[in-house]
Design goal:
The structure is a single chain. This protein is mainly alpha-helical. It is 78% helix and 0% strand.
Length: 103
């Protein structure tokens, strides 16, 4: 019989966070791959980081168990991670255009 401590989440919550982050990041990576070649691996990585950060934040705040609030926060934070990749693609494209016009 497993020992359950009150206030401690199971490792399954973090596994679900990795899955959510990988799915959101994978979709974002395919959408952004035309703008930035690194997006195919960078977007899922930052999606997973965002979802894990959301899970850690929910644990720190004291959200008991896994529910719709934590899942929603994980999706939102994963989308923010993919948005960072999109921002880097836009910003890198601007500096790349300036460099290509000077040569």
């Amino acid at each position: 019989m497993p020992i359950e401590l009150e206030g401690v989440k199971s490792p399954m919550n973090f596994l679900i966070a990795v899955i959510i982050g990988a799915v959101v990041g994978g979709i974002g990576g395919f959408v952004l791959r035309s703008k930035q070649p690194n997006a195919i691996w960078l977007a899922p990585a930052l999606g997973v980081v965002g979802a894990l950060a959301a899970s850690a934040l929910a644990t720190a705040v004291g959200d008991p168990g896994y529910g719709w609030k934590e899942a929603t926060l994980q999706v939102v934070m994963a989308v923010v991670g993919v948005g960072v990749v999109g921002f880097l693609a836009i910003r890198g494209g601007q500096s790349g255009d300036a460099a290509s016009t000077t040569t």
